[in-house]
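#lab-general

N.A. 3:47 PM
ok so I finally got the sequence cleaned up, no stray characters, all 169 residues accounted for. can someone with queue access submit it? mine expired

B.Y. 3:52 PM
send it over

N.A. 3:53 PM
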Amino acid sequence: MTEKPAEPKKRKTRKRATRKRNAGGRPSWKPTLDDRTTIERMKFCGESDATIARSLGVDVDTMRKHCPEELANGYANRRREVVNLLFEAAKAKNTSAIKRLDDMGRVAGAAAAVNGRGGKMPKPEKAPVAEKPGKKELRKQAAAQVSGVYAPPPPPRLAVDNTKAAGGE
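B.Y. 4:20 PM
back already:
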C-alpha cells in the first residue's frame, strides 16, 4: 500500500467584516431648511459660530462643514430681506419706512464720500530713500581709509611710461 504524501496545512484566515461607514455610530448631521434659516438669522443678529452651533446641538466644525454658505453670507442675505421689506413698506406709504430708507441713503452716501469711493484722490508721492550700503561695501570703504602702519604700500613705479599715445612721436 502506498501512502499519499501529506499536503501542507492551510492556514486559517479570518474574514474581515465589511462595515458601512458610521455603522453603529452616530448618524451624520444633515441640516434642514429650518436649521439653515436659523443659522442665517442668528448670524444676522451677530451671534458667534459657537453660540449658533450650541443652539442647534452640533459641533462648531460640523456646522462649518455643512453650512459654509449660510455662515459666510447669512448677514448679507438677511440684510437684503430687511431692505426689501423696507422698500415694500415705503411703497405702501409707510412714512417711518420712507424716513428710515432716506436715513440709510444719507449714511451710505456720507460713508462713500469719507472713504473716497466716489472719486479716488491721488496718493502723495513718497520721497526716494537712499539705500543703505551693505556689509561688503562698508568693509571696502573701511579698508580704503586705512592709514598708518597698516596702510597698503604704494604701487611700484613702471620703467616704461604707458600714458603717452602710441605712434605720435
